[in-house]
Automatic annotation (TrEMBL):
Residues 246-256 have a biased composition (Polar residues). It comes from Kribbella speibonae. The keyword Signal applies. This is DUF881 domain-containing protein. Keywords: Signal. Residues 1-32 form the signal peptide. PANTHER family: CONSERVED MEMBRANE PROTEIN-RELATED, UPF0749 PROTEIN RV1825.
Amino acid sequence: MRRLRRISLWRAGAPLALLCAGLLFATSATNARGTDLRPSRNTTLAGLVEEQSRRSASLVRQHAALTQDIEKLQAQQGSIDPVLSKQLKDLSDAVGTTPVTGPGLTVTLKDAPSQVVKDNPDVDADWLVIHQQDIQAVVNALWAGGADAISIQNHRVISTTGIKCVGNSVVLHGVPYLPPYKISAIGDRRKLQKALDDSQYIENLQDYVVKFQLGYDVKNESSIAMPAYEGTLDLQSATVPGFPRTPSTSPTASGR
């Protein structure tokens, strides 16, 4: 009799267990939405940065393609006055919306090697990495040296370009990048090099290059092909020197 009871209990319990297992699988599939519930490589910061960089680069390419289509359609509507056309070209060159080629310099900045980090556990971690201030110092020195055009990570730098640190990555035009950071400038190479040598900030950076092997390399380039800036030119906010710092949003940004 006991055996019959056990058999009947098993027959009743087995379908219930299978039903519970099915519910668990269904819940897991719904939550995962077809993806791995325990992703491996994409959880690392480097993987996330690379994924976001690829996505942003794709959107920038789409924006550039659409802009070219708009310009072609505008050109089909009628010819532009030659004087106005020249003014437009000159302004485009100054703003950075046309590609340029010429001799110049490329400065490469790197974090300290991993072995140096391991050998100096008591050293402040901020001393062993490249920061936005380091990149800004190089860019400012190159502008001071008369650079005609500058790019960072092969992306054109314009007057509204902002360089920001986010974790151990640097964000440029909304796209995160990991080191090494390559900063190229087109112009007179001797003047550009002198401006780098005269920079007090870069002189201070050289101390950390010697102490902790931060990467700082300057390379002469006989020809640099620099792309045009492909992002938006809308001014999001601005302040007037000498007046209270109350940002004024542009009509384009506010949608008015």
